[in-house]
């Protein structure tokens, strides 16, 4: 079975994907959008993409594509510790530019400023793509933020270890597919949840309160609520909502029916398990 991931090799997403799918063919893709399209077009059965980081927050592209790709569901979530290092080419340790995935640059923002002077930051499609670029361009004064697997694979020198701003740094990755399936993994189970995308009925006072009260009086515990722009104009949002724990068939289905009866649009992205994997 083919599984897409945000690559190239030695990206954090690959480290997560290789622990989820030990015996499948992992296919690197150069963007999160490419991973969604590969699932949609049937080039791969599933994809692994980053969703949220404990320092930097939601990967907004992933949330937007979950909204845009109407047939895509979530099958599982894995949480992985993240350690960032500053890597340079062994032939040229000088740098005036630090390149990496925008999430990695943000997770190391203050630590870089504290330790280094006079450099600029530049976004790359992934940490591993940045590490590969540093290895292929010894003539350029660049450093990459990436993991120790990337340092080994692309034969780079670790100039400074553990440059993330907060010691506790974890990222959630999700497995997406076109099937409403819930993956069972042999890793440490840390929870189960349901993800929904909700669009409110027309704007009126108390609209969001009304939606939240549907969960509240049923004692359904929400573990995440995030609004994202619908891109139809300022002030128009959709809500990404996680309901923690089990999805009670009658109680929860009634909640969805009630939400729809008050004019909210609800998409069920999946009920799935959350696992902890190693870095
Ligand atoms: O760029 C990568 O290696 C990714 O897989 C995305 C990412 C970036 C920073 C932290 C976790 C995941």
Automatic annotation (TrEMBL):
<feature type="domain" description="Prephenate dehydratase">
    <location>
        <begin position="2"/>
        <end position="178"/>
    </location>
</feature>
<dbReference type="GO" id="GO:0004106">
    <property type="term" value="F:chorismate mutase activity"/>
</dbReference>
<dbReference type="GO" id="GO:0004664">
    <property type="term" value="F:prephenate dehydratase activity"/>
</dbReference>
<comment type="function">
    <text>Catalyzes the Claisen rearrangement of chorismate to prephenate and the decarboxylation/dehydration of prephenate to phenylpyruvate.</text>
</comment>
<keyword id="KW-0456">Lyase</keyword>
<dbReference type="InterPro" id="IPR002912">
    <property type="entry name" value="ACT_dom"/>
</dbReference>
<protein>
    <recommendedName>
        <fullName>Bifunctional chorismate mutase/prephenate dehydratase</fullName>
        <ecNumber>4.2.1.51</ecNumber>
        <ecNumber>5.4.99.5</ecNumber>
    </recommendedName>
</protein>
<dbReference type="InterPro" id="IPR001086">
    <property type="entry name" value="Preph_deHydtase"/>
</dbReference>
<feature type="domain" description="ACT">
    <location>
        <begin position="196"/>
        <end position="271"/>
    </location>
</feature>
<dbReference type="InterPro" id="IPR045865">
    <property type="entry name" value="ACT-like_dom_sf"/>
</dbReference>
<keyword id="KW-0057">Aromatic amino acid biosynthesis</keyword>
<comment type="pathway">
    <text>Metabolic intermediate biosynthesis; prephenate biosynthesis; prephenate from chorismate: step 1/1.</text>
</comment>
<keyword id="KW-0028">Amino-acid biosynthesis</keyword>
<keyword id="KW-0584">Phenylalanine biosynthesis</keyword>
<dbReference type="GO" id="GO:0005737">
    <property type="term" value="C:cytoplasm"/>
</dbReference>
<dbReference type="GO" id="GO:0009094">
    <property type="term" value="P:L-phenylalanine biosynthetic process"/>
</dbReference>
<comment type="pathway">
    <text>Amino-acid biosynthesis; L-phenylalanine biosynthesis; phenylpyruvate from prephenate: step 1/1.</text>
</comment>
<dbReference type="Pfam" id="PF00800">
    <property type="entry name" value="PDT"/>
</dbReference>
<dbReference type="InterPro" id="IPR018528">
    <property type="entry name" value="Preph_deHydtase_CS"/>
</dbReference>
């Amino acid at each position: 079975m083919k599984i897409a991931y945000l690559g190239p090799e030695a990206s954090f997403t690959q480290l997560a994907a290789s622990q989820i799918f030990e015996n499948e063919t992992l296919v690197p893709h150069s963007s999160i959008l490419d991973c969604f399209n590969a699932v949609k077009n049937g080039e791969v059965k599933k994809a692994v993409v980053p969703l949220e980081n404990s320092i930097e927050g939601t990967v907004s592209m992933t949330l937007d594509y979950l909204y845009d790709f109407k047939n895509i569901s979530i099958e599982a979530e894995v949480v992985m510790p993240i350690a960032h290092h500053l890597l340079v080419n062994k032939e040229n340790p000088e740098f005036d530019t630090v390149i990496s995935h925008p999430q990695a640059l943000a997770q190391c923002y203050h630590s870089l400023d504290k330790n280094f002077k006079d450099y600029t930051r530049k976004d790359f499609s992934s940490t591993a793509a940045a590490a590969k670029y540093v290895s292929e361009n010894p003539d350029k004064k660049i450093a990459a933020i990436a993991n120790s697997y990337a340092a080994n694979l692309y034969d780079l020198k670790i100039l400074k270890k553990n440059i993330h701003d907060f010691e506790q740094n974890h990222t959630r990755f999700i497995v997406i597919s076109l099937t409403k399936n819930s993956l069972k993994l042999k890793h440490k189970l840390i929870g189960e949840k349901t993800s929904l995308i909700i669009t409110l009925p027309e704007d009126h006072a108390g609209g969001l309160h009304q939606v939240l009260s549907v969960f509240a009086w049923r004692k359904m515990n929400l573990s995440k609520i995030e609004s994202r722009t619908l891109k139809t104009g300022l002030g128009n949002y959709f809500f990404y909502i996680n309901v923690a724990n089990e999805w009670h068939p009658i109680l929860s289905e009634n909640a969805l029916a009630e939400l729809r009866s008050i004019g909210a649009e609800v998409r069920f992205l999946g009920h799935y398990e959350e696992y902890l994997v190693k870095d």
